[in-house]
Write a structure and sequence with these properties.
Layout lengths: L4 H28 L10 H55 L6 H22 L20 E3 L5 E3 L10 E5 L2 E4 L4 H6 L1 E2 L5 E6 L10 E7 L2 H4 L9 E10 L6 E9 L5 E8 L5 E4 L2 E6 L7 E6 L2 E2 L1 H14 L4 H61 L3 H27 L7
Antiparallel strand pairs: 1-2, 3-4, 5-14, 6-13, 7-12, 8-9, 8-13, 9-10, 11-12
Length: 422
């Protein structure tokens, strides 16, 4: 069989080029440390490696979200802790100011301090988070969530409702809310543990009464929850039946009317005495002082109160003074009401802090879980795509030798000619 010179040249050149490509490929593997440079190197391994890379990037994003959420929640916990401390101070001031040892001047000092605390809480409610956005604005975090109108009333203008708070994914099936809206923290607080509230309407009969509300709560939960008792509004009415000949004090009776049910009499006329318990529809009230005939006390479903309005109300009550009996009873009623509202607010803030603590604990646990997952994923990917240097170096040496042999062979073949034998 005859073999042409062109065929010999082409075959030798192709062999040399193949060896050169193998040598270059192994060199690139050594330079990058990767066994799989293209999908052709290992189609199954390349597919699995790509999936693992996607999973690693997703887990890294979860970890970045975790790193965003943690300082944000820590900042919120600090702000709510500061609010709690300030409200504890207000509570002390209310108890102090409602004491008979205080005078108009000292009560004014107390009112001034309470208003100062209110202003400090307003600033705290508008504080910014670690990234410079407003902490309690919800999803509208680029604008201050609270504002004061011309009348001095505080209102919330941040995000509300569903979707008001941003949530970040910290795992494939786990999200965490970062923060709480200012509406939930400072404005939307149910008085008296969310059960019932009360209000005193003082009549105009002269002399004015010194009636005060000391306590309002639930005495029998089962009865309270029966029918519409929990949602109905009741009114305690008074009538004078005579005058005590020895003390010249009014002898009073009371009755309880269900005003939500068209004025149904719930409790008939009963002798009234100061600081005695009045029970009806699963509710309990304790009143002090002596009422007038046109005084009324309303027992109603709990209403929402705000931190700022609570502080404004008690400061106003202290500023009004207590120079006579009816002013003194008004102050007592306002103080008792504010203590109830403060206790409800403190309990509300305590629940929010507990929720934040739970979220932070979840973040801490998930951080460790994400770190372990990243190590596992990276290790698995490394086993698939990373280079075995010992094997690659040996192969590189063999391929270098083969390439040099192919190059020498090509040089020798290139020199072949019949003229060399003439």
């Amino acid at each position: 069989m005859r073999i042409s010179s062109a065929h010999i040249y082409r075959s030798t050149l192709e062999t040399m080029q193949t060896k050169q490509a193998q040598f270059d490929h192994t060199g690139l593997q050594l330079a990058t440390g990767k066994r799989i440079l293209t999908a052709a190197d290992d189609p199954a391994g390349a597919t699995q490696s790509a999936k693992l890379t996607t999973m690693i990037k997703t887990t890294e994003q979860h970890q970045r979200n975790n790193n965003i959420a943690t300082p944000w929640l820590e900042q919120e916990e600090w702000a709510i802790g500061g609010t709690t401390d300030q409200l504890q101070r207000v509570r002390e001031l209310v108890v102090q100011g409602n004491n008979d040892s205080q005078n108009e001047e000292t009560r004014q000092y107390i009112a001034n301090e309470i208003r100062g605390i209110r202003d400090a809480l307003f600033d705290l409610a508008n504080t910014k988070g670690p990234n410079g956005e407003y902490l309690f604005a919800g999803t509208r975090s680029n604008a201050a969530p609270f504002e004061i109108n011309a009348a001095g009333e505080v209102s919330y203008i941040g995000a509300t409702g569903d979707g008001a708070v941003r949530k970040l994914a910290i795992a494939s099936t786990t999200t965490v809310a970062i923060g709480n809206s200012g509406d939930d923290v400072f404005m939307n607080i149910l008085e008296n543990d969310g059960r019932i509230g009360a209000a005193l309407t003082r009549g105009t009969t002269d002399p004015l009464s010194d009636l005060a509300i000391e306590l309002t709560d639930v005495s029998d939960l089962n009865e309270f929850l029966t029918g519409t008792n929990a949602t109905d509004e009741f009114e305690i009415q008074f009538q004078q039946t005579g005058t005590d000949p020895l003390t010249n004090e009014r002898i009073m009776q009371y009755r309880v009317m269900n005003t939500s049910q068209g004025g149904i009499e719930t409790v008939g006329w009963t002798d009234y005495s100061s600081e005695a318990t009045i029970s009806f529809a699963g509710r309990r009230m304790i009143l002090s002082g002596t009422p007038q005939t046109d005084d009324t006390v309303t027992s109603r479903p709990a209403q929402h109160v705000t931190i700022f309005q609570t502080l404004d109300n008690i400061a106003t009550a202290f500023e009004a003074g207590a120079s006579n009996d009816n002013q003194r009873s008004d102050l007592t009623t306002a103080a008792n009401r504010s203590l109830d509202d403060l206790d409800a607010t403190l309990a509300h803030l305590g629940m929010i802090r507990t929720t934040i603590g739970t979220r932070l604990q979840l973040l801490e646990t998930q951080t460790s879980s994400n770190e372990e997952r990243l190590l596992d994923l990276q290790s698995t990917r490394s086993d698939i795509q990373d280079l075995d240097y010992s094997e690659a170096i040996s192969r590189f040496t063999l391929e270098q030798t083969a390439l040099e042999a192919a190059q020498k062979s090509y040089v020798q073949v290139n020199k072949l000619s019949l003229f060399n034998f003439l």
